[in-house]
Amino acid sequence: MKEIVLENTEVSKGLVDYINSHSVTDIVLGASSRSALGRKYWTHDVPTMINKAAPEFCTVYVVSKGKQQSVRPAAKSLPSSAPARQSSSSSWFSFARSEQKIVESEKTGPEKGPSNVAIDNLHAQKHTSQSDGSVRFARISPRSVDMMAENLDFTQVGIKETPMNGSSSYSLDHEMESLKLELRQTLDMYNQACKEAIMANQAADELNRWKMEEAHKVEQARLAEEAALAMAETEKAKCRAAIEAAKKAQKMAEIEAQRRKYAELKVKREEEKKKRAMNVRSQNDLRYRKYTIEEIEAATNKFSTSQKIGEGGYGPVFKGKLDHTPVAIKVLSPDAAQGKKQFQQEVEVLSLIRHPNLVLLLGACPEYGCLVYELMNNGSLEDRLFRKGNTPSIPLEIRFKIAAEIATGLLFLHQAKPEPLVHRDLKPGNILLDKNYVCKISDVGLARLVPSSVADSVTQYHMTSAAGTFCYIDPEYQQTGRLETKSDIYSLGVMLLQIITARPPMGLTHHVERAIEKGKFADLLDPTVPNWPVEEALTFAKLSLKCAELRKKDRPDLGSVIVPELNKLKELGMSSMPSIGG
Fold first, then answer.
1. Sign of the dihedral defined by the CA atoms of residues 71, 72, 74, 75, in that order
2. From which domain of life does this come (predicted)?
3. C-alpha distances in angstroms, 124 versus 5, 117, 121, 462, 494?
4. Percent of the chain beyond pLDDT 90?
5. For 350, phi and psi rounded to 5 degrees?
6. What is the CATH number of domain 379-581?
7. Which three-class secondary structure state does DSSP give residue 308?
8. Which CATH superfamily includes the segment(s) 288-375?
9. Residue 281: what pLDDT?
10. Are strands 2-7 and 101-107 parallel, antiparallel or unpaired?
11. Which has the minimum average pLDDT: 185-194, 344-353, 555-564?
12. How many CA atoms lie within 13 A of 449 on its CB side?
């Protein structure tokens, strides 16, 4: 018996080459035992490839589990030129898919059985027969078992050249069964070893994971400890900073308390000083004459209605003559609210101050609340604007002059010493005109002495109730009761608009704004005045609207803005008198 080893990169190609070179007419192949996983990676198995590539004179048999699975018969006979075969010889082949070597065991003699060939990864151990009919197999090494188990492929191929006798076939089957049993046992041992290796790996992985978790816990604990220490240091620093801040705050509070105490003492001393100065001035500068009620009755013909020239919130006003001088006598109404207080306020204010644009107090009758003023022949600005008694209209240049004089008189009140005076009821009815249209502010009974700090519009004087006339009262003062000199600026703005329009105060600022926006401002001007200088009148109106802003902080300053601007318009009006008159 001889063994032939065929070497090729592919099993199917090596077998086909052998069939062609030795003119093999019959070949028996074991069916592929490759699993589904093996078939996924291998497109064709050996039986399929041999069926396709074997020459046409060769019949291909495929058997599985002792039964014929398929047969591909020869299409034609062996060519006559083919080399002569050994009729008495037969060959059997056994191979694995992972091998690249084919081992042939060939035995000559008519009575001899087939020999088997095994394919190994590393080497094949050869065993020869010691008696007729016995068959030796190439043993498969452990690594070959691993490869076969891994590829799950164990295929047998037989090449038959002559018919086999019965005893040889039986021995071959018996030996094959032994090999299969040995292989199954080896595979079982391999599988068990794999399972144990997997379990060992899992245990090692679990141990490694446990170690990593423990190390992570230790690291987390270390980091937490470091964070806690850092937080403790931060809190200590904050605590120290808070203690330092508290000490500084306490020290500043003590300093502030000392400053406040000193400021309060200073204010108290100043108030006492001002009070003494006012008392001395009131005693020394009392410049009005006291009249008896009999003198008042004689001057007014016992308050005859024919002598009555007006009516106000304080009471009726009569004209008369005292000391051969025409006078206006204001009589306190018995039901006048806060009449006595208003009387005392007006006497106190007018007796201490003098100004060309403030009404002159000539005397008073304190017992009956009568005030004696110089008589203003042209009455009030309100009567003249609305032409009461069909009086003539005020000329254009006179209107600008009246506006400037009102602002000048108001500025004098705001700059009064020792404290500023806020009129609180500035309106056309309280502006009196003499025979030359010189205006004088009257009815200062509602005026209030306001601390001088109010003049800078920072500190405000709070009143418990607002006083004045509707449509002329400062909206902020009416809402909050906080009084300051700019409270009079709002009233002045409304009154200035009336001077050029001769219209009621209700909604007047809105009407003027709309007319300016639409370019119809000239339509709002008093139609009784011809040849209005529209440009100057528009400048006058815009200044008036600024004075009537709802917020005090948006209103212009009286001394630095309003009075200079009105004086400029007054001069323009006076200079235009000839051209207008012409």
1. positive
2. Eukaryota
3. 10, 9, 8, 120, 126
4. 42
5. -70, -20
6. 1.10.510.10
7. strand
8. Phosphorylase Kinase; domain 1 (3.30.200.20)
9. 54
10. antiparallel
11. 344-353
12. 14
- pLDDT-derived band of residue 448, with 50, 70 and 90 as boundaries? low
Q: List strand residue ranges (DSSP E) for 281-338, in order.
A: 289-290, 308-311, 316-322, 325-331
Say if CB 423 and CB 446 are below 8 A apart.
Answer: yes
User: How far is Cα 51 from Cα 73, in angstroms, rounded to an integer?
Assistant: 10
DSSP codes, 355-396: -TTBPPEEEEETTTTEEEEE--TT-BHHHHHTTGGGPPPPPH
Question: Which residues sit opposite 106 in a β-bridge?
Answer: 2, 91
Q: Cα 376 to the chain's mean position, in Å?
A: 66
Name which of 446, 451, 447, 475 is nearest 461 in CA terms.
451
* Residues recognised as catalytic: 425
Cα(56)–Cα(33) distance, integer angstroms: 26
Please, what's the b/e burial string for 181-191 (b: 16 or more CB within 10 A of its CB; e: otherwise)?
eebeebbeebe
Q: Do 102 and 5 touch, CB atoms closer than 8 A?
A: yes
Residue type, 289: R
> Which residue, chain included where needed, has tokens 């032994």?
178
> Could you give phi then psi for residue 433, rounded to 5 degrees?
-125, 130
Q: Where does residue 409 rank: exposed (0-12), middle (13-18), buried (19+ CB within 10 A)?
A: buried
Position 394, amino acid = I
Cβ-contact 27, 11 below 8 angstroms: no
Q: CA torsion sign, 115 to 116 to 120 to 125?
A: negative
pLDDT score of 278 more than 50: yes
Phi, psi of 93 (to 5 degrees): -125, 140
Cβ–Cβ < 8 Å for 295, 322: yes
Pairing of strands 308-311, 316-322: antiparallel
| Average pLDDT score over residue span 526-552 | 93
Please state, in angstroms and rounded to a whole number, the distance separating the CA atoms of residues 69 and 52: 16
Residues 6+ apart with CB under 8 A from 491: 423, 425, 426, 427, 468, 472, 473, 474
Which pTM value belongs to this model?
0.51
pLDDT confidence of residue 109: 39
Contact 498/471 with Cβ under 8 angstroms? no
What number of CA atoms fall less than 13 Å from residue 565's CA on the CB side? 19
Two structure tokens written together for 466 = 């607002």
* Tens digit of each residue's pLDDT (9 = 90 or more) over 60-104: 999 888 788 889 998 888 877 655 444 333 444 444 333 333 334
Cβ atoms of 349 and 270 within 8 Å: the answer is: no
